Amino acid sequence: MLDSFRAQTLHGATVHPDDDPDRWHVYYLRPSEPTWRVNARGIPQLLFLIYRTPVDRPGGRKGGYVAFDTEFYVPDATRALIRTALQAQTDAFATANGRQPRPVQLDDIAITSARCFLNIADADSLFFERVLNPARPSRFGKRVASWTVELSPDGAALVDEALRGQGASVFQPVYEIEWFAALPPLEVTATFNASTFYAFTETRDADWNFWGEDDYRHSISESLRQSQSTVIDVKGAFLDNEANRAVVDKARDWAQRTLEKAIEKRILLKAAPPSDEDRKEPDGIEDLRIDFHQHQIDSFSVLYREKSLVTDRDTVSGTMPALDGLTDVDGRPIDPDTLIRRVDLNHEFFRTLRVNVHVDADFAGLPIHSVETRLDYAGKPMLLMDGDGVAGDVDGEFRFTEADAVGRFVAPVDGPQDTYTYSYTVNYRNESRKLEAGPFETPVSNTIQTISVGDAGILDVKVLAGDIDFTAIASARVTLWYEDTDVPRFENSFELDRDHQAHRWQKVIFGPRRKPYGYRVKYTFADGREYTREVGPERTDELYVDDIFHTRRVAVRARSDLANHVSDINVDLVWSDAEHAYRVEKSITLNATNPFFDWTFPVITGSTGKLTYTERTVLRDRSEIVEPEREATGSTIVVGPPRPDEIVVEVFPDLLDFQKVRLVKVDLVYDDGAGVHKQDSLVFRGPGNPQVFRVTLRNPAKRSYTWTATYFMTNNAKHTVGPNVDDTEALILEMPVS
Questions:
Q1: Coil, strand or helix: which one is 524?
Q2: What is the 3-state secondary structure of 480-491?
């Protein structure tokens, strides 16, 4: 596949290598600008008629008419020079690497989409009254586009002077093209963090006075703090330029859309107050205080790696050269007077309808033998024109056998007749059946007709591997099918893997493609497991098969004294997705040598599975502590028993977006009121490992501490959270609420 990030310029053309190291002799050409299309004698396909007397039309006075063709193609003579230069490079590479020389293989870039327009000063105004073109050139062959422009009297004089001069004319065609390319490795990590903290306090204070009035006070207070944040990180080995930044922006957009879709399918965090049962006053108690705290965290990540096929694009323009100085294939100067004519009002041009016909189809790559077109006007066949005038094809037909051909039809104007008809017949290779379509009635104002592949009765779909991670997925078996009223259902199956990332599905259906096609994908994991995904109908000619999985990451940390108190902590983790009958398991052991572990595993995008874990701790005295199964609600799991006679608080910065936060200072204070007092300040300047606040306890019952976090933002704002009283040993910092 074409490597879009490596290129060189040779003889005015852009040359890309192939991204496959074994195809070091293959190159792809991209022209630097459009040029005149010339006939077999090397003369530009151009006709310029100057009206001796301006013509009055509803849109104003007209002074001239010009029609010409352009092409987006590296000329054959230039190709020969490029091939010679590349062969020298290839031979040098073979010699330096001890390989057998190979002949250079030179291909054109495979354009997937193209459109064109004419960039001319004052278009549709003072000089150029009306510009007609097909809006898109042929995607195959020399990418020919046909243009017609009607000029004002001043515009005709301007174009006449420019075409007869030296240097450049006034016409500047612009081609906007897209093609498939291979990019260097990209890694995109998109993380979503949500947190809800709910606090409920209820106080009942009763004072029954035997001699005076009774006193009763009942107070309730509630507080709710919620936060959500997303962090998108793009990494890749490529230069920082405008084109590559566009690729990064595209990856960010993809990650944002993926997160939004995943968030929609997850259960949003909801804080719930204590139940009536929780608030029930115990018997015999007159004074009551209820403190209820609820803290929920939801966090997940999507990991996207890209080193396969994407669509690259470019906008290329070029100013057509003037006729003076051009030569034909024999080296003779081109006489402008053979292409520029002055005509009277009684010239046949003013009494004729002219229509150009293209076939936008890859005759070399498709099973098309030929396409025969027929145009009729006022009940009679339109005559076929060539470069020298009427060719005498009285049946009004033109036979296409290549994408670069242009059929030019002409007919005398019949005053009241404002439409013409066209029909076509497609002849296929190795097929006796034909496709006959039309006649189609068309306004005379539509002077350019393009017959596309879909109109030619061929199903032609390029299937490409999208963001599939072939380190986790060994292959993807794709099955496609199509059917219509007069087309029985047919299927095609094939494999996509690391070495085969593209497939072309072709089928002659002997009729226009009116309906979408269906497809499904069976993914085979590297460990042999399989998963089949049914996908909805599609109409696109380029089908990307994407990975159904995103990567979730969970960090497992030990809170215990692994050096003196705990020997091993055995943790069994299970991701279970009942909806898709999908399950992933992992067993790990934490000890003094390995006190933490990061587990990444594939998760079906949009699934509502859950992550559970069990832990078994082996102490130094060989006794064991077994904990029941728990569900992990965040991206960090802290396991193991607490350290004896001490409290160890790990402060995690995992949920912070350091693109918005410059640094965070966390002040922690412990005071048991009996002589143990400790305070410390922890500073975080970026993502990293947790920092620890450790206190040796004198009173084991007193395990709470006070913490305050001060956030210094990149926009110079400052936010303070706290002071808060907490007893958790895994303090997870969150983005402050603005």
A1: strand
A2: EEEEECCEEEEE
Q: Sign of the CA dihedral 145, 149, 155, 160?
A: positive
Phi, psi of 715 (to 5 degrees): -90, 20
Contacts of residue 96, defined as CB under 8 A and 6 or more positions apart, other chains included, come to none
Q: Does residue 239 have a pLDDT over 80?
A: no
Q: What's the rounded Cα separation, in Å, for the pair 731 and 656? A: 13
Rg of the Cα atoms in the chain: 37
Cα separation, 402 vs 143, whole angstroms:
11
Burial 533-560 (b: 16+ CB within 10 A, else e): eebeeeeeeebbbebbbbbbbbbbbbbb
When mean pLDDT is compared across 85-99, 102-116, 181-195, 515-529, the lowest value belongs to 181-195
β-pairing, 448-452 vs 352-360, is: parallel
* Count of all residues that appear for the chain in the document: 738
Minimal CA–CA distance to 397: which of 386, 410, 387, 383? 383
471-515 pLDDT per residue, tens: 778 899 999 999 988 888 999 999 998 888 888 888 888 888 888
Phi-psi region of 5 (alpha: psi -120 to 50; beta: other; left: phi over 0): alpha
**Residues contacting residue 226 through CB under 8 Å, at least 6 positions apart:** 194, 195, 196, 197, 269, 271, 737
**pLDDT the model gives residue 282:** 57
Q: Is-contact 156 440, C-beta < 8 A?
A: no
Distance CA 198, CA 65 (A): 76
How far apart are the C-alpha atoms of 287 and 436, rounded to whole Å? 93
**3-class SS of residue 257:** helix
